Amino acid sequence: MVIKKILIANRGEIAIRVINTCRLMGIKTVTLFTEGEEDLPHAKLSDFAISLGSGALRETYLNIEKIVKICIEHKVDAVHPGYGFLSENADFSRALDQAKILFIGPTPENIKLMGDKIGSKKFATSVGVPCIPGYHGEDQSLETLKGEAKKIGYPVLIKASSGGGGKGMKVALNDAEFAGQLESAKREAKNSFGDDAVLLEKYLTGPRHIEIQMMSDSHGNHLHFFERECSIQRRHQKIIEESPSPILTSSIREKIAACAVKITSQMNYLGAGTMEFIFQDNEFYFLEMNTRLQVEHPVTEMVTGVDLVRLQILVAQKEKLPLMQKDIKQIGHAIEVRIYAENPDADFLPTTGTIKYLGETKLSNVRLDTGYMEGNDVSIQFDPMIAKLIVWDEDRSRAIAKMQEALNDYPFLGMINNVDYLKRVLGHKKFISGDTLTSFVQTYEKDLAPKDVPDEIKKVAEFAAKFIQQNGPAVSSSLWQELGSGKL
Amino acid sequence: MSELQLKNFGKIAGRMAIKNELTGEIYRVAIVDVDGAKHVSIGDYNFFLASNSQKKQKSEQNGPMISPMPGKIIKINIAVGDKVKKGDVLLVMEAMKMEHSIKANRDGVIESIAVKLAQQVTASAELVKISN
Q: Same domain for B102 and B49?
């Protein structure tokens, strides 16, 4: 079948990302929004926008019954789930299947196998892919877990079995703090996923996070699109991603990619996915597979030149992938930063406010994926990520320099955010030299503290503030469009 | 600091252009109002320019501990009269399903607790007073 109308079961930047590809493919789109989201761009850029009403997430973006009903009413052919929300929910994909609507993603069996952190590792091991030492047992008693932690050797990572995104994840450095950290991990796991089962893993001291972009069709073609390195993280969540990794040699790159393809081909995978590995001392261990499009997929799109959403749609309608492994090349260097409404100087806690000046750039090969426009409020109801900024250039050092400039052009004024923090990370000599371990943010905490603003710059700011005060109360950027330069 | 003689020089890309007449240097300034303070972007720098009253508030020490974010109180480890040491976890808050520990900012005795278990608080809400 050929897909003619897609419902996007998501919001924000990823909904807009999917709309853009659908437009290029001549596919109509339906987006969803909740009360209070009427002014966000994802509710305006689609062909049809349908209200999910108000209430908690389980009443809106996680409400399978309501979303399937909308799909039927609006006669959509397929659903793109984006990331998060229902993207890795086998019940959702099954409910759509029963309604004869295509789910743009893997099969329910694929989701179930890889959604189970224990089962997925067992599967990886069974096909000869290395996994990190750990405990994935069903016995969840404190004595057993403590005993297993000792066996693995501290420090030990405690992780929610059905978790993700850093939620329900705690590190225990020693026997004495194990019980407390376990309690906290279980509480977060219960609240976030309704399941407090945890697994234990050896916590590597100097690891990197390397992941491989995968794409499979239903004709037995299982491709990879090389790696992304996503080692720069805070609170166990990625903030900077890049491709290629500054550390991988081509022989190790080939080895990791071959392992990743082994998994997708052996499990008969369908669609886009990401195989996550942890990497240290030239050894790599399978962590998990995300059975969806990732937040950081644009990095791969920039270096390979493919549109991953387009490929997702093609394979969902049972087409063959239009390219072969040998056609896929990793060219130049791409970096993505995640712009968050958060305070890097206060433990990266979420902030709120109104985006009053977003910014714009004239630089080439710069991509801004955002779900917001000027005037939009950022509330704590949803994830605090407000934008992704992606740049491409010929090599890594040029890409870093370009990102610094691009961030200057997109300050996202209106609330405390991490734009300056990202600039300090990109400018750190250890980032520039490619020493990007997952511990980077903690290790260089002091170096990454805010720098003093030079007096000269402050004077300019004070001059600007005074000028505004004398020329009326308006402070939005639109003031400068209203005032002719002659008046200034 | 080099000499400055600043002048408005029109607008570009939604920003004010400000020129230093002595050197010809152009500063492209984006500036918005956030709760009385100015949020400013100039070149490599993004920063808040606090209003005078805000500067005054900041310099007042020994105030109550305030909530660093909007969220829900999910654990209270202390009672009025408890002795605490700097770094002790007093409360646990939750926002966006992430837990965050509120730690004592100094040694002292708990004078008052302004929140209850399961209460939703806004950013900057008073949480706990610690007396010496």
A: no
Q: Name every residue in B having a CB less than 8 A away from some CB of A.
A: 1-2, 4, 6, 8-11, 13-16, 18, 27, 29-34, 38-49, 68-71, 74, 94-100, 123
ipTM above 0.90, yes or no: no
Among residues A152, A172, A202, which one ends one of the domains?
A202
Instruction: Answer whether A457 sits within 8 Å of B68, measured CB to CB.
Output: no
CATH code, domain with A360 = 3.30.470.20
Indicate if the alpha-carbon torsion angle A447, A453, A456, A457 is positive or negative: positive
Burial letters for A58-78: b for 16+ Cβ neighbours within 10 Å, e otherwise?
eebbbbbebbbebbeeeebbb
Helix, strand, or coil here: A175?
A: helix
Which chain A residue's Cα is nearest to B2?
Answer: A456
Q: Which of residues 211-250 of A touch B (CB under 8 A)?
A: 235
β-strand partners of B126:
B66
Give me the number of domains chain B comprises: 2
Quote the domain boundaries for residue B71: 65-131
Residues A256 and A370 in one domain: yes
Query: What are the mean pLDDT values of chain A's consecutive 10-residue runs (488 residues total)?
Result: 96 98 98 96 98 94 97 98 95 96 96 90 95 89 94 92 77 94 91 87 91 98 98 94 97 98 98 97 93 98 98 98 98 98 91 95 98 94 94 98 98 97 98 96 95 94 92 48 42
